[in-house]
Write a structure and sequence with these properties.
416 residues, alpha+beta, Cytochrome Bc1 Complex, Chain A, domain 1, 2 domains, seven-stranded mixed sheet, five-stranded mixed sheet, 15 helices
Length: 416
């Protein structure tokens, strides 16, 4: 067992079976946030498996070899805590929060979900209907559903371009053996991270995790992922029911390991991060074309994307697209002022530091950073990266990414 402490508050241990335990001790609080991260997400699914990671996320709550489904939910709620999970493109997270005195209960409950699900066939059949209804609910929200189409354009014929929830056809095809096979391939020790933040001692967490992981010796599996495929810019217009048009304009960008990731974050803040951003001021406030407009930046291990969303009247889609293009071109051609750059940096730093007042956010940061970089980034390191960004850095990145020939767009336009 190797232990290394980067800071007095942060500790990391890799157990003999390959599971990593990372903790951040915050003695001033009385709570703990616990997460068990699996380095597997919808990106790791074969086409017929689309949605199986998310399906498993649901199914583990239906019972384990130690507890029935209702006991799982009661276990944390009965002590004032909570339990939940989510599935993303590259990872899955099962998490709980409680008072520090219930750390053992939180760890035991979350690890039980990951290690001992029973996946009852009867519950599988019921959950198929539940998830199909979840898909319908999502498709009835065009401001969310449009991003599935956007991602399929950016990553055609690739797992990154398929929806995390799957499709009704793939979801209805899943059987117990499919779920067990996926668990055996991906829920393995060397792809698990346990992250804990709050009033905890690292050594105590490690001891509890070792005890709970006793016998968890599945064969390690390397993380073999198909690289992101080629990108050909595309424009689509689809008719949808509803009264409002929705438009996304964006392009492929950089992965989380690219040194330009922080430049993208600052650029995204200036472009559409909040009511004072250029998009809000120059499109919503100046012209009144929309209620909702923002920019977004997504980063995976080896790729990413940067874009803009707007919901507007169908008669204003073309004008909105031109105004968005004008803002992108401006960033590509003219360096932002020192004042605007400083304001964006302060906004980004403030958002980061305010977020760290939440133990759940700290736990999430620990897990994501460990999965992505296998090391800890101190707050000082992150702030130094933000401070190092220059106006010319942003102009250079914007000039590359916002080249008109690189941009894709997808519009949902009311059919009535």
């Amino acid at each position: 067992m190797s232990v290394s402490a980067v800071l007095p508050a942060f500790s990391r241990t890799e157990l003999p079976n390959g599971v990593r335990v990372v903790t951040e001790q915050i003695p001033s609080v009385r709570s703990v946030a616990v997460g068990v991260w699996v380095h597997a997400g919808s990106r790791d699914e074969a086409p017929p498996e689309n949605g199986i990671t998310h399906f498993i996320e649901h199914m583990v709550f239906k019972g384990t070899s130690r507890r029935r489904g209702y006991q799982i939910n009661q276990r944390m709620e009965s002590v004032g805590g909570y339990l939940n999970a989510f599935t993303a493109k590259e990872h899955t997270c099962f998490y709980a929060r409680s008072l520090d005195e219930h750390l053992g209960r939180a760890l035991d409950t979350v690890l039980d979900l990951v290690l001992h699900p029973t996946l009852p066939p009867r519950e599988i059949e019921k959950e198929k209907d539940v998830i199909v209804e979840e898909i319908k609910m999502y498709e009835d929200a065009p401001e969310d559903h449009i991003f599935d189409h956007y991602e399929s354009m950016l990553y055609p014929e690739h797992a990154l371009g398929r929806p995390v929830l799957g499709t009704p056809d793939t979801v209805r095809s899943f059987e117990q053996t499919d779920l067990q096979s996926y668990l055996g391939r991906h829920f393995v020790p060397n792809r698990l991270v346990v992250s804990v933040a709050g009033n905890v001692r690292h050594e105590a967490v490690v001891r509890k995790v070792e005890r709970l992981l006793d016998g968890f010796e599945r064969d390690p599996r390397p993380l073999n992922r198909m690289p992101a495929n080629g990108y050909t810019p595309t424009d689509q217009v689809l008719n949808q029911s509803g009264q409002q048009a929705h438009l996304v304009v964006g392009t492929r960008a950089y992965g989380s390991s690219d040194p330009r990731r922080t430049v993208v974050s600052v650029l995204n803040t200036i472009l559409g991060g909040g009511m004072s951003s250029r998009l809000n001021q120059n499109i919503r406030e100046k012209y009144g074309y929309c209620y909702s407009i923002y920019s977004f930046a997504n980063m995976m291990a080896d790729t990413g994307d940067l874009g803009v969303y707007i919901g507007t009247d169908s008669g204003k889609v073309d004008r909105a697209r031109k105004l968005i293009g004008r803002e992108l071109t401006k960033l590509a051609e003219t360096p932002v002022s020192a004042r605007m750059l400083d304001r964006a940096k302060q906004q980004l730093k403030g958002s980061l530091m305010l977020g760290l007042e939440s133990m759940s956010n700290r736990m999430m940061r620990l897990g994501r950073v460990e999965l992505t970089f296998e090391r800890y980034f101190t707050l000082d390191e992150v702030i130094a990266e933000i401070e190092a960004v220059t106006s010319e850095d942003m102009r250079t990145v914007a000039a590359e990414l916002f080249e008109p020939a690189r941009l894709s767009s997808i519009a949902f336009v009311p059919s009535n």
